[in-house]
Structure formats: structure tokens, C-alpha cells
């Protein structure tokens, strides 16, 4: 598994991993969620290895201020910056050929920012989309699974706390508190069932996120509005997945995304929470595989030949 480091224009260093053949017909780029890292997608990366001749090249990377990537300045802790970071990753590691973009939570929002800021390149290159447990409407639908008044109080407290954390620097004192935080993380991120290994992975990723990242991205996450951006991508094949018990990006978020993308397949996974790539890896992998197979050039040529033959026969 080749690993690389990409230094961005503002000198932030990204940790990047590439899987699969460099000359693959399609490149898949997977973006993780807030306070997580590239390992969120480990099951989907493994699933791509068994596609044989249709196997894509898969690129995963740690977002700035997450995982093994470098810390971000507070001014860089925005969704707009993450969209530009994605553009740089694609320019360097996937300069040609069709691309499938997959985003979980913050990663999905990053894809929307990339589409808004780089519409021409997006239209030319992006052949398929996978949106998992994400939103195009900030915190509009976020209720944390609580009654409206309690949710409003929790959101207000979270917003104030995020502002304080954002100014606390690039250190991780909460790592020592992980055992005490475990029940809260379990409740917030997972649904009815939770595999211990999945929870541990999520906890370790959270423990590596600097306080500036924990708090700094909150403002732009809460205010993003990108349904119009998605509506402009109407002809892109897409899959949208959400857990029925997602407390951060509930099913209403996924329904609005699917409503803006008429070629999107919507799946609401009963009993699942926010961490679908780890909670329901088979369903997420199947959705990603379906998108890859639909956009693989050889497969599309076969379909066009079949359509031509049908027309001649008629």
C-alpha cells in the first residue's frame, strides 16, 4: 500500500494512501468524517480489491487536522478549505480519468464544497458519488435524537464549547479522557448495535484529533447550505445512505440530498447510527461497488453497444 505526503499551498501536510493499480479504469477517492480518519473506510477499501478487471484505484487520506495529517491553522478549519484540499489531492493523485467520490459525514460536505468551488472540473471528471451519513443543510435537521427544546439547548452548548476548543491549539488532552467519553461517543455515533472493534477505531481517531480540529470546523459545518449545488449535479449517478438512528445527520438529511439528485438511490438502514462504513460495512461496500460498476468505462461501452444493437434490430 503506497503511502505519500502532500504539502498543500499553506504548508499543511496531508497523509495519503493509494490502493490498487495506477492504470485502473476508475479512481475512487474516499473522505472521512469529522474527528475521524481514513481508517473509517477500511472495509470499503478491502471490498474494492475483489472486483478483478474492474478494480478501481482507491485513494484515502486524512483531512487536515486529523489522523496522521498535519495540524491546521484556525483560518483553515473550514469546509471551503477542505474542498480546495480535495481539488489539490485530485490534481496530484488522480489527474486523468473518471472519478468516484465517496464522503462520510464531513467528507460528504467536503465533496459538496468541491463541487461548488470547482464546477467545471467536477463536471468533467466526477462520474459517480457516494454520500454516507451526511447533510447538505448544516445543522438544520440535527436533533441528537432529543426533543426539540433539549436539542436546541445542546446545540447552543455545543456551539459555545466548539468556539472555546477551536482556540485551544493543536494538542489532544482529551486522549486521556477517552475511557470516560466512551459511553457518550457510543450513544452519539452508533445505533442499536455496535461492534467493539468499530467503537475502538472511532475512539482512537477521536483521540488523535487536536482540539482546534474538534472545535474549529463546527461553525462552517453548522451553516453549510448546498442543496442548490447538488441540484446542478442531477445527471451524476449517486448512492445516499443513512442510518434510521443517526443522531447527527438523521434521515431527513439524506432525503433532501436524494431529492436534489434524481439519479440517486436512497437507502435508510434500520437501527443503524452515524458510522455506517464501520457499522454496516457490507451495505456501504455494496453501494460503492454498484456506483463503480456503473461508471467503469468498459462497462459503459458494453451498454452503449447493446443499445445500438437494439436500435438496429428495431
Automatic annotation (TrEMBL):
GO terms for molecular function: hydrolase activity. It comes from Paractinoplanes hotanensis. Gene3D superfamilies: alpha/beta hydrolase. Keywords: Hydrolase. This is Alpha/beta hydrolase. InterPro entries: AB_hydrolase_1, AB_hydrolase_fold, AB_hydrolase_sf, Epox_hydrolase-like. Pfam families: Abhydrolase_6. Residues 28-287 form the AB hydrolase-1 domain.
